[in-house]
Amino acid sequence: MRQLLFFLLLTPFFLFGSGNLRAQTIALLPVADTTIDYNGVDLNLTDTLHQLLVEAGLTLLDDTSMRRFMAANRLRHSGSIDSFAVQKIGRELAVDLVLSATLCENGALGKERFGLILTALETVNGTVVWSFQSSSSLYQETTLLSVGAPRDGAELKFLVLLQVAQQAAAELPEIVPLRPAGGHQFKLVDLQIFPEYVQGKSPVECQLKLESLAAMPTRIILSSGKEQLELLPGKVAGDYLGHWLAPAADGVYCVSLDIYAVDSEPIAMHNYASYTVINQAPQLTIELKQGFTLNEVTIFREQLLITARLHPNRAVSRWQVKVTRQDGTVVVDDQVDGELPRDLFWRGWNNKRQRLPDGEYTFTLIIWDAAGNRAEASRKVFLQSECQPIEANAVRRGKQNFVRLSTPEGSSGLLGLNWKLQVLRPDGELLMEHSGSSLPVEFVLPDEKDVDFLLFSIDVRDQVGNTFSVVDSRLQLPESGLHVVKTEKWSNDF
Amino acid sequence: MTYISGYRKRVCSFIRQFLLLLSGLILVACSAADSDKIITRVAGGELRSKVCRVVLLPFVNESLSEQLDIQAYRIFLAEIVKSGVFTVTPEGDLRDFFYRNRISPQTIWDRKLIATLSQQLDVDGALVVYIRDSNLVRGSYGSKQTFVSLQVELHDARSGKLILSNFLRRRGSDYIKVLHFGVIDTVSGLLQRMAREIIEIWDEEGVSGC
């Protein structure tokens, strides 16, 4: 009884809609279901809406033709329909309007809500000319004494669809077909300029892809700066090619097109692409981290962190790293295509991933910007993976014994050392303790008459973190003259 | 006679009470409808640019409701077309622009890019909508109501400069007329009303150059 009353209330809509029948053919695109995904499609809802629109008095193109057209033209959903595609639908399928529907709300199970947007595009120029939206819920549709109100989600959905269909049937036939605006017979599918960044007077190439509703253009003129040239047809229909020399001066050069066709006025397309002329390389600076810099030489132990900066910042097409010995021998040479990484690491390895011997090297970074301009920066680096040795001597001057710490003759002495010395009696009693960073240095040994030797320990650390230690080594006290402790006994403490 | 006059008194009293109740309800309805004013900011304090053909840039969805950006996009497009205040570029033409210029739809729009868009799509206005929030809030008697917060910006596409900026936050109950009648229980319905409100404001500000 309730359902009967509901349909009786809606019957006048059908009758009213049928009266406005016009000879206007309309294509309905598959309903876009945005409640599930960005490009979802609801074909069942499309069929229902199609049926309701037909029942309301509109002349609709059959679904199969529309879907076949979409498949042939790679149109996946209504969001990808542009004005050119609408014009093409109009021409190829002989329709006046294209309807695009979007399901924007679809709740169920206690949250019964439904919303639909219907938009019409005319096929002469492909512009949006009409639109209608209807959204509702069971709560919103509650009436006094529940007379005529939808009972469930299905009835609500039907009610909303019916409202949309009736509105379309009432208003769409009123749309007067537009006159062609002219100049939109073509669609610029793609326009590419190779390369995008060039040096002055270098060759530049253009590839244009056009789609046309009628005949292809008779002439296409490309303008860029003072340059003007005619693009020539490629092997594939709709493809056009051209090449020219870039201007000498730096700058961004926009590309415009003038398209001439038999059946329409010339079409001007401005600023559809651009290319940039750059003649000067950016200033490249490199900063070395995780090392100790002394007299413009960066000393490192395990790895070197290299940070490169470009001023002005610019895209890099490729870069190269070169490491050379002092005699000019190249030990590392690596080239990479693409952007320069933010940070580079060098672990003191050669190209075969073998550790290089300690010594001085020249690290060079070379970059080529997108236009092919070359920039280079070099830094001197010193690989030091071992601590500099220290000699300990016991000497006698007059009536006193001294312990003397010094570096062996011929050592490079690039880095400062921090050392700590402990001297002990043979029974383990601590006699003296000193630390410092300067060398050579001497300390008076306590007068121990009952022993002929002492024990000593030294911890040494250089400024890049290399360490050595000597533990409880024997220091022979001189009767007269000198006693040298052999450095071969020292152990590397990594 | 006494009986008749008593009956009249009772009828008059009933009518008086009914009118009082009705006026009360009308007052409630009016106060509900004018709950929040739309905050409109005019860039530079003076409106100079007029636009006619607008393009809707992809909406920015900061809410937790998935796909609300695409739904709001199509609702705004539909309302602009319906209003006749501006003409709108089809959504597919904007997609073509993205493809042709190798731009991601999530790109950050600057003045230069908007100016390029203006030249290629032949538009003089660009609409950017930020969906700041959308959720359910507790209404009267434990009911839940939808609400949406929007920031809408209209740019002069030729120069990329901002013309107008609006911020508004609406609940479904803001549109109640009497009892529950007029309540908007759907997000899409609420967005439709909000879009309509904004377009009306812009029309009043004299932005339309059509």
What is the compact description of this entry?
The complex is a heterodimer of chains A (494) and B (210). Chain A is 14% helix and 46% strand.
Structure explained in plain terms:
The complex is a heterodimer of chains A (494) and B (210). Chain A is mainly β. Chain A folds into four domains: 2-174, Rossmann fold (3-Layer(aba) Sandwich); 186-277, Sandwich (Immunoglobulin-like); 283-383, Sandwich (Immunoglobulin-like), CATH 2.60.40; 391-492, Immunoglobulin-like (Sandwich), CATH 2.60.40. Chain A contains five helices and 34 strands. In chain A, the strands form seven sheets. In chain A, strands 1, 2, 3, 4, 5, 6 and 7 form a seven-stranded mixed beta sheet that branches. Chain A is elongated. With 210 residues, chain B is an alpha/beta fold. Chain B folds into two domains: 1-34; 36-205, ABC-type transport auxiliary lipoprotein component (Rossmann fold, 3-Layer(aba) Sandwich). Chain B has five helices and seven strands, in the order H-E-E-E-H-E-H-H-E-E-E-H. In chain B, strands 1, 2, 3, 4, 5, 6 and 7 form a seven-stranded mixed beta sheet that branches. Chain A binds chain B through residues 34-38, 79-86, 102, 104-105, 113-115, 117, 119, 121, 126-133, 135-137, 139-140, 142, 187-191, 269-272, and chain B through 67, 70-71, 74-75, 77-79, 81-82, 87-93, 95-96, 99-100, 116, 119-120, 180, 183-189, 192.
Which key phrases capture this entry?
heterodimer; A: 494 residues; mainly beta; Rossmann fold; Immunoglobulin-like; seven-stranded mixed β-sheet; 5 helices; 14% helix; 46% strand; B: 210 residues; 2 domains; elongated
How many beta-strand runs of chain A?
34
Strand composition percent of chain A: over 45%
Q: Give the amount of beta strand of chain B, in percent.
A: 15-25%
What is the SS-derived class of chain A?
A: mainly beta
Task: State the helix count of chain A.
Answer: 5
Give the overall shape of chain B, derived from the CA principal axes.
elongated
What oligomerization state is this entry in? heterodimer
Please give the alpha-carbon distance between the first and last residues of chain A.
94 Å
What is the C-alpha radius of gyration of chain B, as a whole number of Å?
23 Å
Task: Give the distance, in angstroms, between the N- and C-terminal Cα atoms of chain B.
Answer: 71 Å
H/E element order of chain B: HEEEHEHHEEEH
